[in-house]
Each structure stands twice: as structure tokens, then as C-alpha cells.
Amino acid sequence: MRIVLGVGGGIAAYKAASLLRLFTEAGHDVTVIPTDASTRFVGVATWEALSGHPVSNSVFDDVHTVNHVRLGHEAELIVVAPATADLLARAATGQANDLLTNTLLMAGGPVLMAPAMHTEMWRHQATQANVETLRSRGITVLEPDSGRLTGADSGPGRLPEPAAIFAAAMALAESSGIPGGPERAAASGPAGPTASGPAPLAGIRVTISAGGTREPLDPVRFLGNRSSGKQGVALAAAARDAGANVRLLAAHMDVPAPEGVDVVRVETALELRQAALRASAESDVIIMAAAVADFRPAETSATKIKKRDDTADPVISLVRNPDILKELVEVRDTASRNQLIVGFAAETGDADGGVLEYAEAKLRRKGCDLLVVNQVGRDEVFGQDTNSVVILARSGSEPQEASGSKSDVAAAVIDRVSAELSRVQPPG
Ligand code: CTP
Hints:
Elements: E1 2-7, H1 15-25, E2 29-34, H2 44-51, H3 67-74, E3 77-83, H4 85-92, H5 99-105, E4 111-115, H6 119-123, H7 125-136, E5 140-141, E6 145-148, E7 154-158, H8 162-175, H9 182-187, E8 205-210, E9 215-216, E10 222-223, H10 230-241, E11 245-250, E12 262-265, H11 269-280, E13 285-288, E14 295-297, E15 318-320, H12 324-334, E16 340-347, H13 355-366, E17 370-375, E18 386-393, E19 400-405, H14 406-423
Parallel strand pairs: 1-2, 1-3, 3-4, 4-5, 8-11, 8-13, 11-12, 13-16, 16-17
Antiparallel strand pairs: 6-7, 9-10, 14-15, 17-18, 18-19
Helix pairs in contact: 1-2, 1-8, 3-5, 4-7, 10-14, 11-12
Bound molecules: cytidine-5'-triphosphate (CTP).
């Protein structure tokens, strides 16, 4: 595959050398286009030696070959790593003031950008607006990793690991149907990981809800449930380990959120609904593992409800909470979005039907792609460290059993998610 590797002017430019190696060792033909600023970090000679091609960032070199048009036209895939705040801004506003931005404007194939910058710059409204603009044009912008940055600061802004960018690039090429893409790379025996290798969810945005919602009666009391959040937290860790960018919508949990995931705290079902709908537009996968209260008190007292001898004991009336999972499915279908939605169900069998019959009916009712079914009542699920589930698929494929620690079950669910993503057309 013919790849253009654009390198922005940040300290992480040196990591692009490892990425280039992964591409060339996998048999791809790579032309590097560094920005002028990036050559202060890594010199042109390094790129020429590693790629085996001449390197320039000037539109006035090789004018007879119309370089500024040809490179973008010929590239089957363009990868920009690191994409600095400045480069994202220039790409979003369609500037053409160097060879790399000219090439991006001429791109005929898919484009993947891997940002790296300080957390404040990444979170700045201007950068976020640029990222949104680029994504709305079909460009894949990866989420940066979290961790130690150049100075003493840490937070989201690190360039994702070269192996993760490589895997995301191969997945993008595959989903774009580029002939001689990852298949050719695999045939020629890559030294690095592939899309189905160690980082199967690289570049995939996964939102997971976990824990139990609390529905307030007054400032000190609430209606809650026994969910510990352990299964949702194990899922977040498993998705993170598979290379995904994970957002955890955390209702009440007895366990801490895992490192390396974005955490959004919520209390009530209505807050979870708002957070989930907001996350939906930016998620390739949504897993609803939270125990959501089906009902909430019709009224929440602003002051503590007092017991009084002169009045009757209070009666709590409840109103129904929205079904978030069902709503997420409706939103996805209305927007014709390519998104995988996973639900959880706690079921018991009775005289009228078995657990799986009820679960299959729930899968159809909710419209999600996968339903992870716990049989409750046999052994207690809540708060335990082990779990035993059956994964049902809307596609009708065989139910799959998984049991063991909650981490084992999480790994099985995440494996199944990656298998479903590669079976259906991957998001792009
Ligand atoms: N769920 C949701 N919103 C709700 C209730 C549940 O999104 N208001 C989600 C849960 O996170 C879970 C799935 O729906 O992924 C199944 O929840 P469950 O309580 O088992 O299903 P219910 O629809 O409440 O069905 P039942 O009548 O069996 O309680």
C-alpha cells in the first residue's frame, strides 16, 4: 500500500520513526512529509534513510512532478503522527501553506490523524472544534493517550503508541477496502502487530456504563440497588487493554475506576441518560452494564423528610425512568450510524419460560446487537468477584457462554465485541 506519513512539529515526532518502521517492515511504501517545525525534532536525513525515499516539505521541490498534487493523489492512505494543535487547525481550515497541508487537501483515500499536545491545548474549545470538523469530514482522528507529557504535567495528550497507530491505520485501510492493504502486509510477514493482533480495538471509541443509579428521595435518602460496578469496571479495563479509547459513565460503584480511561460521574438514571446520549455521537461501541433504576420517586423533597406524630406516614409514588439502552438504539438507527450496542440483562426463569427465552425476547425488545445475560437467583451476581453469563447476538449466531472472574467475563465480552466489529462493516 502507498502511504504518506505526515509528521507534525512536536516532541513525539521521534515516535513516528517507530511507526514508519512498522509500515515499511510490513511491506508498505511510505513517503514521509515532515512539517518544517518537525525537522527541528527529527531531521530529514532520518526520514530519507528509514523510508528509502527523498523527503521534502516544500511545494517548490520537484516541481516538474507536480509533487503537491501527485503525493495526495497517489497515496492510498495518509497517516499524520503526531498531529499538533497547529496542524489540526490548518487541516480543519483547509490551509495549503506547505507540502503536507497541500497533500491533505488532495487526499483521495482515507486519512488518519494521531494528535499529541499538552492537555490544555487538546481540551481547548478551538482544538476540539477542529477535531469535530475533521471527523465530520470523515477523517479519523484518534483520541490521544493519557499519561506523562513532556514537562512535569500529565493528562490526555500523549501520542498513542506506534503499534496502536499502526493497528488503527491497518483497520482503516481494511474498512476502506484498499486492495493490497493489511492482507498484503500480513502475507509479507509484518514484524509489528496487525489489526487482529495485540490491539484489536485500537482507535475504537468505547463508552461503558457501570454501577447502580441512585434516585434521591430527599437530600439524604435515595432508592438504589446492589450493583457494585465491578463488571463494568472490568469491561472498561479489558477494552482499554485491547487498545480502545474508553469513556466510563460511572454511577455509584464500590470499586475505583481503572487507570487510563475517561471517567464521567453520574448519580441518577436521568443523569446517566444525558451522559450516554451525549457520548453516543462519539462512540463506536456502547456497553450498558449499569444497573439503571427503572423507577424514580415522583418527587424529591428539598429538605429531609421528617417523621411526625401528627401526620400520616409518607407514601412514595414512583414514576418510570426512560429506557436508556432502547433510546441509544433508536438514536443510532435514526442517524444510520454504524455503532455496536451491547446490553446486559439479569434474568430468572419461571413456569412460563426459561432464562434464555426471556433474554431473547429482551434482546428483540431492546434492539441492541449483543445481550450479556446473567442468570440471577442461582448464585448471587451483585458484589461477587465471579460471574457466569451467556452472550446472545441479534445476528442469531449461537449463544456463547463465559464464566470465571469478572475480568475473564469482561475479556470474553470484549473479544466478542471485536469479532462483531470485524464481521460487520467497521466504523469509519
Ligand atoms: N437499562 C437502561 N435503562 C433502564 C433500564 C435498563 O438502559 N431504564 C439497560 C441496562 O443497563 C441493561 C439493560 O437495559 O443493559 C437491561 O436491563 P434490565 O433491567 O434487565 O431490563 P429491563 O428492561 O428493566 O427489563 P425487566 O422488565 O426484566 O426489568
